[in-house]
Structure formats: C-alpha cells, structure tokens
Protein 1
Amino acid sequence: YQVPENALVIYLELFGYAVEDELCCQSCSPDQYPRVQFSVDGHSEVNGHTHYRLTCRIDGGQGWLAWESSKRLVHLREELYQPVLSNLPRDHYSAFFDHTPFCRRGAPRGTTQRLHKWLASLGECISAGLVEPVLLV
C-alpha cells in the first residue's frame, strides 16, 4: 500500500477543514471551522511518571469523532505546546493563552487543572482556524 501524496489533505477534509494544502487552510468564517475540544480527566502514576488522561473531540465534516489518550507532560510540552508557541503569531497566542499559561516544569500542585485550562484554550484557538493544519496531526 502506498500512502497518497495528498493524504494529510484528505485526512483533514474528513474533519471538515477546507484545506488548500497541508500548510494552508482556505479562508473560512469562524463558524465554518470544525469545533475542537480537549479536556483533562485526571492523571495517574505509571512507572514513576505522571500520565494525564485526555479526552479529545472534533465536531465537523462527517459528524464527530472523540477519543481518549494518556500522555506525560513532557510529551505534551514537546508535541503540542512548543509547536503552537513557535508557529502561532504572538498576538494570536496572547489572545488565547495569556490567561491560561502552560504548566510549569516539575508538575507542581495544580498542574492537572492548569493543563485542562490550556488545552481548552488550544481547542478554542484551533476552532477559530488559527492553527495551521500541519500542527493538527
């Protein structure tokens, strides 16, 4: 089996994104973007590491899709926070995340709630169409 050259575009279109290519969404009004939601449903200790239980949901395209995942904070920092921080214009980042900063290193008390709030802001930012498609996969 060979993955089609435009596989990422096809994948994103299934969720309702009007995609020109894997780096650019077509301009849409805010109500035309799929609704993305994240939540943190707690955490557990596994082999001395804290794993956060995440629930993710996308509404749009061909209906809705929901899934759960478990991630360590270090992976969320590397795979979500850093790419969003690096690729989102500063004024957009400030508009969505100034009141919901990402978690502090070392996971002090309150990290689960802080992560929940940051991920909720990320969902709003994605739903507003401000995150490039390549960061969504």
Protein 2
Amino acid sequence: RLSKETMASLLEYINGYLEQALTTKVEDMSLEEIYKQQSYFADVQGKLNRRDMLLPLEESPTVQTALWELLVKDSVLSDSVESILGDSAQLYELGALISDPGSERQLLHADYNYQPDFQPDIPPALTCFVA
C-alpha cells in the first residue's frame, strides 16, 4: 500500500514525465542523444487515449520510494510475487498505465506469451497492477 504522500508525489511525477514524453522532439536531438533516450512508452492494447508509460527507476527517487513502499514496507505484493515466481524473481518492466477519457475497455488478454513447452529457457512473468 502506498502512503497518501507517496501517491500524491508519484501522480505529480507521472504527469510531469508524461508531459515531457509528449513534448520531446527527437528532430532537435543529435543521434547520440536519441540513442541514449529510454523509450517512454511500451506497446499497449487499445491505443486510443491509452498509454503504457515506462517509468525510470534509477533516475527517480519518487519512483524508488513508491516501489520500496509496495515491496518492502508492506510485503503483501512481494510475498505474492515470491510465492508464484520464487525468491529470484526480477523486475522486468515498471510503468504507469494511463487511460484517459474516451479509451475503450481492454479485452482479457495475456501481457506475456509464456510457452514452457516451446521456450523452456524463457521464465514466466507476472503482471501486477496497483491502483
């Protein structure tokens, strides 16, 4: 569970980061700067008025605090992840799913196509949402 203070800080951070992502103009950057840029958005189903914005973990104390509260301070989420994936589970992606007014409902779908019979070396993944 996130504290009210962290929720407010995280919302402010996400809104600012979204504004930055939407106004970044790669045509004003050198090739080196473009290659250094982390992609702001992951692919999302039902793209109309919906974004899956990737959050930078290392560059943001706000994101780090939120993740610490969710996984360490209150261990319900981390205990659940560990019970499903084991104690060596790794964070693969951290993002904010943004659905603006007018976005369509998403149908039930898999975020990750896990096929242990065909790809035994690829570990399973678990998607967690915090609202």
